[in-house]
Every structure is written in C-alpha cells, then in structure tokens.
C-alpha cells in the first residue's frame, strides 16, 4: 500500500505545489522550515483543505478536488505522532494505549497489544502516568498509541524535534524497528540529515513549496544540486557492510571495496550499515597524503562540481560506487584545479562520523 499526494495550495505569498508517492516504509519530507513539510502533512491528515489536488492511500481516496471528495480527519484511519507526545496526563500508559486501541475496535479491527508493547519496550511503564516518564518514554508511548489505532498511514511531524540528543538516540532505533516490522506507510517530517540517513526508505526533498527531488536517501542526499538545508547542511549516505571490529574501539566497514573506519558499530560482520557523512567533514587531496591523523583516505573520482555564489563549492565524488559530497572553498577548488573526472583522495577522520549517523536494520539501544 502506498500514499499518493498531489497538492496545490496558497498561503498569502507562499505557494505549495507538490506531487509524490510514499511507498511502504518511511518517506521523509525533508527541507528547511517554511518549505511546506507540515502543510503537506496537515493536508493528508485532514487538518487543512487544499485548494486543489488529490490524496489517496491505496485505492482509498481521502481528498479529490475534482470529484469533491473530502473525508474528515476522524474517518481517514491515520495515526499522528506530534513533536510533543500529547498523552492524556490523567491516564496511565496502559489507558493511553487503550485509547488508541478503541479506534481500532470502532473500525472493526484489533491489534496485538503485546507485540506493540514489546516492540517499543514499554512493558515496564504500563502503570505509570505521563508525568513520571522521560521525554523519550513518552514519545515511545505516543508511537504505540498511534499504532494500536490500526491506521492505514502514520504521520510523524518532526517527532524528535523537542528531544535532546540523548533522547533522540533512544527513540531513533524504535522508528527503525517500526519501519522494518510494520506494513503501514509512514510519512515523516524532518530537517535533520542524520534522521533522513537513518530512517528513510525514500526522501522527498522540498524547496520553497516544490519537490526538488524524490528518491532514496543515497540519491537525494548525494546530489550536489539538491540542498534543501543550504550548502552548509549538505551530506551523503554510504551503503556499507561491516567487515570487522578492532580492539581499539573502531569498526571497519567496506563500501564497494573501499575501507572506512568509524566509531564502533554494534552490528555483526556482514551486516548492512548506512553511514551519513557531512560534506564539511570531507577534505580533498590530489595526491595521497601521508603523515596525517585522519584514518580514512579514500580513492575517489569527481563526478560533479557545483560552484555557488558565495565562497564555497560542493564536490560530488564516486567512492567505490557510493556517492560522497565534499564542501570546499572556491579558492581550494581553483588552487587544486578540481574538475569533473579527476582522480582525487577524500580524507575523513573516523571520529567525524557521529554515532547517530550510523544505522542498520533493527539496531536497538543496549
């Protein structure tokens, strides 16, 4: 089952005109504030009636301006996860979950509560009230409540934005598991490249109310022409395999035959791992450097060079069949004589790869 969206809507001087398809898994609406992400989610939820367009989940039409179809929110069979958990403070966790299950019963369907509780690790919280939970625990309960409503689609509007980095690290693995173990499409709003890299089955990059590009996280984040957060937020995703773990706390990954050392990854050899690398952390050299502290010196070939209006430049690289971006100054690009097709070396410190930018299937906190 997939979600199909075609929308046109105007707010004063802002015009939204977006069309995309969200397949099973996590489709991330990615872009800076004001690009139209939340407007799209609210339209899908029935909280906003667009000027024109069509929204359908599978064969079920939620909105069609031509046919004058408009289902109210309570009939759309959606689960909505907000930035703040929005749990009922006077109810226990068990009762909050039962509220979500009530909607499933109304729809004539039921869900295995035990499976959801186990998946989210909230069994020990059932008799507590929201005020006695951490931010991460509350958000896990909110995910459970949305899932127990047996939705045909889950909407998540920047669900980690209100959490600190520690709580985000706690919650991300549960969204990964939700993606991998349920068949419900998830439309996820974010302006965090690390979240996109970890969670996205597909990415819809939005700029000024338009879809700049849609595709996999590797394709979208690795495209120097698509920078929804501006050049300073550019980065790419490498698809790698765990080769071995070293006793000094580093994990060796293989990316198309190229070795990459990163902080230890809790995955066995042979496991598939995605790695998010920020463009600003990649240096370029036209000859293999020696006597440096950076452990990753990767042979690469320049695929594209994008010179901006300011002092910076984005360089798209082929590293073992993976796309990598490097952000350098225009002066450096000129001095090095960088050009398309040139063989260079990408230099990356192992510690530059943040742990929240490394993800595999089903990684849960220890």
Automatic annotation (TrEMBL):
InterPro entries: AAA+_ATPase, ABC_transporter-like_ATP-bd, ABC_transporter-like_CS, Mo/tungstate-bd_C_term_dom, ModC_ABC_ATP-bd, Molybdenum_import_ModC, Mop_domain, P-loop_NTPase. SMART domains: AAA. One of its GO terms (cellular component) is membrane. Residues 291-357 form the Mop domain. Keywords: ATP-binding, Cell inner membrane, Cell membrane, Membrane, Molybdenum, Nucleotide-binding, Translocase, Transport. It holds the Pfam family TOBE. The keyword Isomerase does not apply. Residues 3-233 form the ABC transporter domain. One of its GO terms (molecular function) is ABC-type transporter activity. This is Molybdate transport system ATP-binding protein. It comes from Salipiger thiooxidans.
